[in-house]
C-alpha cells in the first residue's frame, strides 16, 4: 500500500481556475474524505489523482513514485464511480474479473480473486446474474469487488452512495469502512454529504472553490472549525450565525447582539477573546447547544416562525435579534409560532469569528 501526496496541484480550464494551489498528504492506510458543495473541486482533485484529469501544475505522488505524467492504468489506483460503470451484457463474475482478463492474468488466479472478493462482499450467489438483475446496493458491491481484485495501492471513491436510498446509504457506508479496515487500504473518498464524511473518515478535508479550508479529524472539525465556512458546512442543522460585538460587562466580557441582548462569555474564554473587544464579530452557536426556557445566564428571546417536532427533540425556526436561527429544544418544550419564547444559549460551546475574514478567534 502507499500514501498520496499532492504538492501545489493546480487545475485550469482555459481562463477558469478550478483548483489554485492544493496541498494534501494522505497517509498510508488512511481514510480521507473530500467534502464540500457542488463545484468546489473535490471530484476534479480525485480525477487528478487517478490520472483521468491532467494537472495544470504541481506534483502528484503515490508512495514514493511521481505519477504526475503517468497514465491512469499505470498508477495502480482503483476507482469506484457514482454510476457503478458496470458492463450490462456481462455477468457479475465477468464484470469483476474483466480488468484482470484484459491484463492477461492466469485464469485460475482470476477465479481465485473473484471468489475471494465475492466472499468478502457477500455477493457470491449473484455471480451469474447481470447488473439489471441486481439492486442498487448489490451493483455497488460489484463495482467495489472489481476494484478489490486489482489489489491497488489506493482506492478512489467518487460519491459511490449518492444513487442509493437513505437506509441503504447507511448500510453501505458501514460496509465500506469495515472493508477498508479489513484490507488496510489507503482511501480517498469524495462526497457532498457531510454525514457520510463525518462517520467514515479518519480525516476530512473541507473544500471550497478549489481550496482546502480545513483538514482534520471529524470531532475537531465539529468542535473547532477554522472559519465560518467550515462551521456552517459541518453539522446538521447547520450552525447559527449572529452579528455581534464583544463588550466589557460586570468585570468580564459579554457578546452583545444587535438588539442589545448581552450574553456572558465563560470565564475560561476571557483571555482568549480579550483582544477583540469592540470589534465587529460573528457569534456562532449550534442548534443543539441551545435549550428552551431560562436555564442559565445567557438568554435570548426567539420568535418562532415554525415549530418542528422530530420525536427525540423539537426544532424551533425563528428570529432572535433580527437574525434567523434554529434552536433544538426538548421534545415537550411548550412553544408556538409567533409567540416569543426564551432560549438559553450554552456559551461554553460558543464560537466567535472575525466578521471580515470569517476566521475563528
Tell me about this structure.
It is a single chain. Helix content is 25%, strand content 35%. The chain is an alpha+beta fold. It has two domains: 4-229, Rossmann fold, CATH 3.40.50; 240-354, Nucleic acid-binding proteins (OB fold (Dihydrolipoamide Acetyltransferase, E2P)), CATH 2.40.50. The two termini are 39 Å apart.
How would you describe this structure in keywords?
single chain; 361 residues; alpha+beta; Rossmann fold; OB fold (Dihydrolipoamide Acetyltransferase, E2P); 2 domains; six-stranded mixed β-sheet; five-stranded antiparallel β-sheet; 20 strands
Global Rg: 25 Å
Tell me the count of domains.
2
Shape: elongated
Helix content: 10-25%
Could you state the order of secondary-structure elements as H and E?
A: EEEHEEEHHHEHEHEEHHEEEHEEEEEEE
- Spans of at least 5 consecutive residues whose pLDDT stays below 50 are none
Amino acid at each position: 500500500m502507499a500514501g498520496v501526496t499532492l504538492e501545489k496541484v493546480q487545475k485550469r480550464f482555459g481562463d477558469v481556475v478550478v483548483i489554485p494551489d492544493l496541498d494534501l498528504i494522505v497517509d498510508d492506510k488512511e481514510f480521507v474524505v473530500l467534502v464540500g458543495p457542488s463545484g468546489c473541486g473535490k471530484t476534479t482533485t480525485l480525477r487528478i489523482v487517478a490520472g483521468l484529469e491532467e494537472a495544470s501544475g504541481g506534483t502528484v505522488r503515490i508512495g514514493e513514485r511521481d505519477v504526475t505524467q503517468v497514465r491512469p492504468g499505470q498508477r495502480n489506483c482503483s476507482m469506484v464511480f457514482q454510476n457503478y460503470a458496470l458492463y450490462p451484457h456481462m455477468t457479475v463474475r465477468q464484470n469483476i474479473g474483466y480488468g484482470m482478463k484484459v491484463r492477461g492474468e492466469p485464469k485460475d488466479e482470476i477465479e481465485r480473486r473473484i471468489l475471494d472478493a465475492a466472499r468478502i462482499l457477500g455477493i457470491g450467489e449473484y455471480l451469474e446474474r447481470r447488473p439489471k438483475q441486481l439492486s442498487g446496493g448489490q451493483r455497488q458491491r460489484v463495482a467495489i469487488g472489481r476494484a478489490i481484485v486489482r489489489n491497488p495501492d489506493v482506492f478512489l471513491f467518487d460519491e459511490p452512495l449518492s444513487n442509493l436510498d437513505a437506509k441503504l446509504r447507511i448500510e453501505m457506508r458501514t460496509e465500506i469502512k469495515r472493508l477498508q479496515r479489513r484490507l488496510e487500504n489507503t482511501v480517498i473518498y469524495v462526497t457532498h454529504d457531510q454525514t457520510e464524511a463525518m462517520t467514515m473518515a479518519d480525516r476530512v478535508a473541507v473544500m471550497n472553490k478549489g481550496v482546502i479550508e480545513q483538514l482534520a479529524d471529524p470531532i475537531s472539525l465539529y468542535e473547532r472549525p477554522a472559519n465560518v465556512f467550515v462551521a456552517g458546512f459541518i453539522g446538521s442543522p447547520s450552525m447559527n450565525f449572529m452579528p455581534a460585538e464583544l463588550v466589557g460587562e460586570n468585570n468580564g466580557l459579554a457578546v452583545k447582539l444587535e438588539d442589545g441582548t448581552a450574553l456572558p462569555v465563560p470565564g475560561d474564554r476571557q483571555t482568549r477573546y480579550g483582544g477583540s473587544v469592540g470589534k465587529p464579530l460573528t457569534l456562532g452557536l449550534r442548534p443543539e447547544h441551545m435549550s428552551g426556557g431560562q436555564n442559565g445566564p445567557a438568554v435570548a428571546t426567539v420568535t418562532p416562525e415554525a415549530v418542528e417536532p422530530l420525536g427525540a427533540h423539537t426544532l424551533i425556526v425563528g428570529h432572535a435579534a433580527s437574525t434567523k436561527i434554529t434552536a433544538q429544544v426538548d421534545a415537550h418544550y411548550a412553544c408556538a409560532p409567533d409567540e416569543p419564547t426564551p432560549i438559553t444559549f450554552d456559551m461554553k460551546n460558543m464560537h466567535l469569528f472575525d466578521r471580515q475574514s470569517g476566521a475563528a478567534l
